[in-house]
Amino acid sequence: MAKKKSITIYKCSECGYTQPTWLGRCPECGSWNTLEECISDPNSTAAAFGKNATEKIKPVPLANVTAQENARISTEIGEFDRVLGGGAMKRSAILIGGEPGIGKSTLMIQTAAAIAKKYGKVLYVSGEESAGQLKGRADRLNLDAKGIEILCTMRLEDIKDALSAINPLFVVIDSIQTVYSVEAGIVPGTINQLKFCANELTGWVKSRDSVLIMSAHVTKEG
What is the DSSP-derived secondary structure letter of residue 52? Predict the structure, then answer.
């Protein structure tokens, strides 16, 4: 499939009005000096989530940047927080790898329950187990399942729709090897699928104060 060409446009930060050239005053809302240079790229992750234009990123002096406060979210699991450097960093994508049966799903459902209880808005995407199986594991662990939304699917497009509708603080993908997109073929688990789907999901979380955790199986070949 041929990629569409991206173009430069100018978007009003007040009302969202866009046009191809810069103006000092927005024709739509009348605000002055609010038109910002943006890139309209139909091939980008932002476009896939319904955004027609993204602000053009330019370098800024590090000395002028304000350090982000409260940038980490505690998983309420001490050892897990320690491994993550004091908690899960917002706008980060975390990969948990290990052999099948090692306990990745158990760790993630425990983390999801703890974060949902403290912060709310958790989306747990399962491509391997049913909602009933997940609920059974949560019950065996005596976990409070309130605040956790379960999505049992392998299609990336279903996940995108849920992300846009729920806008969760914490997203679990169990596992990324089961996720596929029709844009990268129909067979899950291939290298192209892993790269494409992981990139799309990471792009979504990078633009929000959310955390993405993906599990992946380590095979005999590594």
Answer: S
Of 111, 200, 136, 119, the C-alpha closest to 163 is 200
For the chain, the domain total comes to: 2
Which residues, 6 or more positions from 64, have their beta carbon under 8 angstroms from its beta carbon?
none
Q: Are residues 149 and 209 in the same domain?
A: yes
DSSP-derived secondary structure for 5-42:
PPEEEEEETTT--EESS--SB-TTT--BS-EEEEEE-T
In this predicted structure, what is the pLDDT of residue 47?
Answer: 47
Q: Give yes or no: residues 16 and 119 share one domain.
A: no
Q: Is this prediction's pTM over 0.90?
A: no
Average pLDDT, the chain: 85
Residues, the chain, total?
222
Which pLDDT does position 138 carry in this prediction?
A: 94
